[in-house]
Amino acid sequence: MSVNAETQSPKTATRRTRKLGMVVSAKMEKTVVIEVTRFVKNARYGRIQKRTVRFLADDRVFKCQTGDVVEIEETRPLSARKRWRVKSVVTRGRGVVPEIAGGVSAT
User: For residues 72 and 84, what is the distance between their CA atoms, to the nearest angstrom?
Assistant: First the structure.
């Protein structure tokens, strides 16, 4: 009886979820806040709606700044709310996050 090498693999490769998002806060040590925006179509009316979610991500090498677009990858729980790790910086920001949803103007 022969056994395939495929069935005896000690570790199976798990596919980790990756997301693109913008850094909205880099004020904590080793942690950045990433905001991921997606667009969802309403099932009944067909209107496109914008949904945003914030994730805490691990940034051990301090390479992220506010306004950067980064790719994050799912990982094991690192703290109570942190389950993501910064994989790479896609584009550098200007250090400022644009106002979202009509903030107060300085006039």
Answer: 6
